[in-house]
Amino acid sequence: MTHLQVKNLSVNFGGLKALDDVSFSVAKNEVFSIVGPNGAGKSTIFNVISSFYKPSQGQIFFDAKDITATRPDEKAKLGITRTFQNIELFENSSVLQNLLIGRTIHNKHPVYRQFIFDKTVRNSEIAHREAAEKVIDFLELAHYRDDLIANLPYGVRKKVELARALCAEPSLLLLDEPASGLNPEETEEVGHWIEDIRHDLGITVVMIEHDMSLVTEVSDRVLALSEGKVIAQGTAEEVQNNADVVSAYLGSA
Length: 253
Ligand SMILES: Nc1ncnc2c1ncn2[C@@H]1O[C@H](COP(=O)(O)OP(=O)(O)OP(=O)(O)O)[C@@H](O)[C@H]1O
Ligand SMILES: [Mg+2]
Prior knowledge:
four-stranded antiparallel beta sheet, Rossmann fold
């Protein structure tokens, strides 16, 4: 069953065509990767899916529903969550506090009730805390629970960003370069988390990534972009051996 469908998507920035008629679909519970040289338009796809950018043409469907014009917070409620290429966390808050922020889309009570902090609100706070603790256990972050983000090594911050995304309980997780800046050991670990996220949590993953060993390890299918256009789609091996992909990377090197 198709979970996400991107149809004839184009994005223009002035005269620059960041995306040019891009189409692809992702099945439920698939790990789908997007590769391509710097500036190919990969993050722009995520920015359109999460409504940061408006497309000049094309549509996005989520479970067959047209969500092209849906607000970002509504998309989060539907079950779409992302991480950022540059880590976006609250530096002077703890790991747990950052994860609780990831739960805010599940806050159903009006502000005045949260102010009164009655029993219902208290119970939901407990439920949020339990959900965050589950993610802490899942990603083995217990050791860092109360540490400030600013004091954590880069690799742990990357993991906290992933944890915050999981706290939203998405059905579709968009990962923008989860292994960038990580050493080979940490990158291998990311591969294991992605496998667990798919198998244990049943989440569909779309991943933008430059590390081809990670892409090959976890992806069912891969899409290659260059200068805003789709140049290949297939298994990791097929895409890596595609002549247009090889020349796009050589051209950018
Ligand atoms: N807000 C913006 N305004 C103007 N140009 C933009 C904007 N966002 C992206 N671009 C341009 O669109 C093109 C695609 O950018 P994008 O960030 O999607 O590339 P990418 O494939 O994610 O690259 P990288 O691998 O370096 O992250 C680039 O030429 C970029 O400079
Ligand atoms: Mg990018």
